[in-house]
Amino acid sequence: MERRLLTCFLQGWGYSTSEAASAEEALTICSTDPPDLILSDWMMPGMDGLEFCKAFRELPQENYSYFILLTAKNEKGAVARGLDTGADDFLLKPVSSHELRARISAGARILSMQRELSRKNRLISKTLKRLRQAHEEIDKDLIQARKIQESLLPELSRRFGSSRVSLLLRPCGHIGGDLVGMFSPDETIVGFYCIDVSGHGITSAMMTARLAGNLSSTYFDQNVAMIKRFESLYAMRPPADAVRILNERVTSDTEVEEYFTMLYGVADLSNGHVRIVQAGHPHPLLLRADGTVEFLGQGGVPVGLLPGLDYEDFETVMEPGDRLLFYSDGFTECHVDGGDMLGEEGLIRLVRASDEQKKTGQDFLDHLFEQLQGLLQPGQDIEDDISATLFEYKVT
Q1: I need a labelling partner for 224 at 20 to 30 A (CA). Which of 55, 199, 349, 376 fits?
Q2: CATH of domain 2-120
Q3: Using the 8-state DSSP alphabet, how is residue 94 labeled?
Q4: Are 176 and 149 in contact (CB under 8 A)?
C-alpha cells in the first residue's frame, strides 16, 4: 500500500517509475536498467534495505544512483550503518509528501552536479590522452634532435701533435643551447671555442646548429674563422675578425632575437701563443703546469646584441704542460647543496680535485662534471646546460 502511494506521488510529479515487491526483484531490474534514484524500505522480507543497498552498490554502473532508505528507525547508530552501507539519505515513516519531494529534489541536484563532474572528467581524460600522445611525439622529435645535435661534435678529443683539445657538452634537457668545437687548417695552428646561446630549448638549439655551420670543422669554406689562400689551402682569420663577422651575421637577421656569449681561442702550436676573444662568456681559466691558476680576460659584449661592434682579442703564452679551460656559466652559476652558487673558487676546487686524480683530456672534463653533480642536493637536477673546452699544450 505504501509503495503504491509513493508511486502515485512520483508519477504525479512527472517521474518515470518502476516497482519491485522485493529487493531481489529490484536487483534484477537495476542490473538491466539502473535508475537515477531508489526509494527502498529498510525492513523487507528476505533481503533487507541495508543488504539491498550494499548489493546494488556492487553492481557495475556507468552513472551514480541516489539511494534513499525509508525507515522507522531514528537512532544515530542506524543512520551511521546506513551511510556506511552506501545510502545517501533517509526518510522517516510515515513519509510526508512535501519532505519526499524536497529530498528527491536535493538528490536530483546532487546527481546533476555529479554527472556534470563526470562529463568534465571524461573530457579532461580525453584531453590528457591527446596531450600525452602529443608529448610522446614531441619527445620522440626531441630525442632525434639530440642525436642531430650530438652529431655536431664528431669527436670529443683530438690530438694536434703533442697538444690536445677536449670537449664537454651536457644539455640539461633533451637538447641545449651550448656549443663547443675545434678546427685546424694545418698542423701548426688550432682554433677552439665555447658558446652559450641565450635561453634554453628548441630555439637555442636551432641557433647552435646555425653556429656549428659557421664554425664548421669539416667545411672550411663555410667557416667564418677561415680565409682561403690558394686553391685548397686555408689560413686562420684573426680571432677578433671572426667574432665580428659572426656578430654581423646574427644582428643582420631581424627575425632572430637570440644572442650568445662566446670564448674563441687560436693557438700557435709551435710557440704556445694563444689569442683569445671573450664575448660575454665566463673568464677562461689558465692552469699552469706548476699548479698556479689564473683567470684571464675582461668580459666583453655578447654576440648578437648590437650591430656594428668591434671585438678585441688578447694574448697569453702557454708553456709545455699548461692547460686552458673554457667553460659555460652552467658550472659557476650552478646552485650546489646549501643554495649557494659554485662560483669561480668552487670551480678551482673541482679542478684541483681532478688534478689530484691525475685526470687529463676528456677524463678531466668528465670528472669535473661528475664532481658538480655530486655537490647537488638529493633529487636536484642541474638547471643549465654544461659545456667546456680544454686545450692542453704539449702534454705527454
Answers
A1: 199
A2: 3.40.50.2300
A3: S
A4: yes
